[in-house]
């Protein structure tokens, strides 16, 4: 599960990771209030207005702006709140900004220049270890650094059985070229960050930039945190951090019905049980000249209710011109699925597109008979190649 920068920073702070302080708001008026309060708390006179969306590259897309007084805080918040922010991670349609984080300016001048670093923590499955990646090339596109100068990304693998060792934290700080007070601060930062990563059951932390301020403090300016969905039962308080505005509406509806749905751009909706069969079905659709409109796995126990929920979700996509249902009757019997299809069809009423149903496995013939005798605009197929041929025929008749 992805969370917003402001939520991620709250979590990091609770583990003793120093952060760029900020207050999240939804209106320009609140933004000015927040800036005042922040100035009282931290003494800052400049502020950064930061769009809160689940995507990186906000700075380059115009979603992170420096404000040098309260009027500018109001103006820049006005510009950013409500904007459709386009970054290299949002896709061309962008994402609507509902909230901004008003943050203290941490790039103030002082004894030395502020310097940006990169630190991330994730699981290296191949080595069965967590890995901390760090670089002196923080702030800009780390993907570019990884591609052109991979030697500038340092990696330290952490055996989860013994945890982060102090020599490892020091090694990373040295590799980043830090000495004296900044070195000590970085070691503290890495320790707190690693503890937060492990105790929150996260699958990824990416702090870019980590900043060394002009007075040698080390802090997180940005924070991308990915929480592991499978650990939610241990972190009931994290469930509230989910922002449904950031997720595709159909995918949200699907997950609330226990369906695994991913929307795609094609014209043939598919409803399948099992992820592997779903992938194979998408291949067959492509081979027969169609493009899959979605990936939809209804799970092992497909029944009338899940089939109906699946239908409704697929039909909300206006691009869908035909639906292919491909169910293997292993745990579930084909006649039950066929009855489910017929029932769902009747409940939904008029379904505007042709439906091809392929049922294979236990009671396949009976399933096919139920479909054929239902009198509905549903075609049954027993073999996958027949189903594919039917999809092709149906698409040809539409064009
Ligand atoms: P991203 O573009 O989505 O990764 O958002 P970041 O939170 O990383 O911010 C983008 C950039 O804004 C950073 O790399 C900094 O250069 C700049 N920035 C962030 N905070 C401050 C600040 O307090 N002062 C100044 N001057 N710039 C900042
Ligand atoms: Mn960033």
Can you walk through the features of this model?
With about 400 residues, the protein is α+β, with helices and mostly antiparallel strands. It is about 35% helix and about 25% strand. It contains twelve helices and 18 strands. The strands form five sheets. Strands 7, 8, 9, 10, 11 and 12 form a six-stranded antiparallel β-sheet that branches. Strands 1-6-2-3 form a four-stranded antiparallel β-sheet. α10 links the parallel β16 and β17. It is elongated and about 85 Å long. Bound molecules: guanosine-5'-diphosphate and manganese (II) ion. Manganese (II) ion (MN) binds next to loops. It is an enzyme of class 6 (ligase). Its cofactor is Mg(2+). One of its GO terms (molecular function) is magnesium ion binding.
What's the arrangement of secondary structure elements?
Elements: H1 5-14, E1 22-25, H2 28-42, E2 47-51, E3 64-67, H3 70-80, E4 84-85, E5 95-96, E6 100-104, E7 115-124, E8 129-135, H4 142-148, E9 153-158, H5 166-175, H6 180-199, E10 202-212, E11 218-220, E12 224-227, H7 249-256, E13 260-263, E14 268-272, H8 275-287, E15 294-297, H9 304-315, E16 322-329, H10 334-348, E17 355-361, H11 364-373, E18 378-381, H12 384-398
Parallel strand pairs: 14-16, 16-17, 17-18
Antiparallel strand pairs: 1-6, 2-3, 2-6, 4-5, 7-8, 7-10, 8-9, 10-11, 10-12, 13-15
Helix pairs in contact: 2-3, 5-6, 8-12, 9-10, 10-11
